[in-house]
Amino acid sequence: MKRVFSGIQPTGIIHIGNYLGAVKNWVALQEQYDSLFSVVDMHAITSSYFQVGSGTHIAEQLKESTKITAATLLACGVKNIFIQSQVPEHAYLMWIFSCISPMSWFQIMTQFKEKKSALNGASLGLFAYPALMAADILLYKAELVPVGDDQTQHLELARNVASRYNGLFGDFFPLPQPLYTTGTRIMSLRDATTKMSKSAKSEMSRVNLLDSPDEIRNKFIKAKTDSEGTVKYDLTRIEVANLFHILSEFTGKKPEMLEAEYRWGDSLAFKQTIAEVVIEKLRPIREKTEELMKGDNLFEDLEKGRQKAGELASLHIKEIKKTVGFTV
Ligand code: ATP
Ligand code: MG
């Protein structure tokens, strides 16, 4: 059975872009594949400690976000979840990968360039992020990686790293392939030229899975649209098209079908309709997450995933250590 691996950063609360682009897919895939999913807290610190004076406060936030992210994934129905930093082999393998990869592979990463300009600089960790992502996947010899299309470049780099290792030491790693969802990338509600993102500054740019009904209504009603007062599914009207995509994903109806229902309708009424659909779809997830956060069993629920990840990681690292000439 092929193995699937994917991860999500605890950089905030899971939003509908993550849900539609990744998590919803994970739940379906785990029935067909041998799967492992990770809350990648080591990735989450690539930017957060970059600001001087951020230390203790961010550490508390990270711990809380990691718990909430894990609880939200459980509430969505994801099984075999573990927390990345609890399996130290990820960092170990990343170092080996960093030493066999040319820097030029990293210099062309568009996400690095975007995040760097948003932060006015970048840590070495942010630059090396794709090497850690390659380690996350290859540590488990995963063949399939369900991600949104914002990860295409990173995954290609993971394949290059695997080929380079195999070329140096003989075949060991499979070349991981992306598994995309059929849906379109969900864009920010404030600026439809950028994707919806957990770490974007504006809370109004994203709808989180744990938002209250009032917050969801408010975010959709205030979502930026163009100056035309009526709606139409037209890909050149990027803000309205994004709203159609969100509604389409949550209703399972194609945008073209929705177009027939809503075309020339008032854009405020359209936004209100979407808000109500999303509120109802997210309600059970929010309630279940709150229940998990209140109980004491969260880490017990994560134990199975951690054990599975830990066993595979230590098995593969033993072989890798021998291969690269480290004493065991
Ligand atoms: P950050 O801003 O901290 O990078 P993020 O929102 O991009 O957060 P990630 O943890 O980097 O979230 O990604 C988790 C998964 O969600 C990945 O598989 C990614 O491809 C997917 N994803 C992220 N944003 C979107 C989006 N706007 N639409 C669809 N899928 C997305
Ligand atoms: Mg991201």
From TrEMBL:
Subcellular location: Mitochondrion
InterPro entries with a match to the protein in the record: aa-tRNA-synth_I_CS, aa-tRNA-synth_Ic, Rossmann-like_a/b/a_fold, Trp-tRNA-ligase, Trp-tRNA_synthetase
Taxonomic superkingdom: Eukaryota
This enzyme's EC code(s): 6.1.1.2
SUPFAM superfamilies reported for this sequence: Nucleotidylyl transferase
GO biological process, one term: tryptophanyl-tRNA aminoacylation
One GO molecular-function entry: tryptophan-tRNA ligase activity
Enzyme class per UniProt: ligase
Protein family according to the UniProt entry: Belongs to the class-I aminoacyl-tRNA synthetase family.
Record's keyword annotation contains Hydrolase: no
Protein name listed in UniProt: tryptophan--tRNA ligase
Classification via Pfam families: tRNA-synt_1b
UniProt key word Nucleotide-binding: yes
CDD domains membership: TrpRS_core
GO-annotated cellular components: mitochondrion
Main localisation: mitochondrion
Keywords annotated in UniProt: Aminoacyl-tRNA synthetase, ATP-binding, Ligase, Nucleotide-binding, Protein biosynthesis
